[in-house]
Amino acid sequence: MGRYVFKLPDVGEGTAEAEIVAWHVKIGDHIHEDQNLVDVMTDKATVEMTSPVSGIVVSLHGEPGAMAPVGAPLVELEVEGAGNVKPNGHGAPKAEAKKAEEKKAEAPKPVAQKVEMPVAAAPKETQKIATHSAPRTFGGKPLASPAVRQRARDLGIELQFVPGSGPAGRVSHADLDTYIASGGQVAREGRAPREGVEEIKIIGLRRKIAEKMQESKRRIPHFAYVEEIDMTELEDLRAHLNVNKSPDQPKLNVLPFLMRALVRILPEFPQVNARFDDEAGIVYRHAPVHIGIATQTANGLIVPVVRHAEARDLWDSANEVARVAALARDNKATKDDLSGSTITITSLGAMGGIATTPVINYPEVAVIGPNAIIERPVVRNGQIVVRKMMNLSSSFDHRVVDGYDAAAFIQRVKALLEHPAMLFMD
Question: Active-site residue 398, yes or no?
Answer without folding.
Answer: yes
